Amino acid sequence: MYRAHFGLREPPFGITPDTSFAFSAQAHQEALNTLLVALAAGEGFIKIVGEVGTGKTLLCRRLLATLGDEYITAYLPKSSRSRWNATRTNTSSTAR
């Protein structure tokens, strides 16, 4: 619908962000620079947290697109934190 109407070559919207269309606001560029410095300093694990819609997924995808072949990466888009909390709650209740 949008492609034909606006003469687009590809769909304008997707479920995951496309790094080629990213606008690099100052805060986002600073976050990316911080991650790059941390990796260059040898930090092994980096966790990205923030409110919904703040650009965490886009930041991670931009980071992965920026890194060279000398880095081995793993992208874990969802944590099992809620399951961990459930397990922790169950353990706490049995200890009482």
Number of domains: 1
Share of helix, binned: 40-55%
What percent of residues are in strands? under 5%
The geometry reads as elongated
Distance between the termini: 60 Å
Structural class by helix and strand composition: mainly alpha
- What low-confidence regions span 5 or more consecutive residues with pLDDT below 50? 86-96
Computed over alpha carbons, the radius of gyration is 19 Å
Describe the structure.
There is one protein chain. This protein starts with a helix and ends with a helix. The longest helix has 15 residues, at 26-40. Helices cover 48% and strands 0% of the residues. Residues 86-96 have low confidence and may be disordered. It has helices at 2-6, 26-40, 56-66, 81-95. It has one domain (2-95). The chain has 4 helices and no strands. The chain is mainly alpha-helical.
Topology:
Elements: H1 2-6, H2 26-40, H3 56-66, H4 81-95
Essential attributes:
single chain, mainly alpha, disordered C terminus, 96 residues
Question: Quick summary of this structure?
Answer:
The chain has 96 residues and is mainly α. The protein has helices at 2-6, 26-40, 56-66, 81-95.
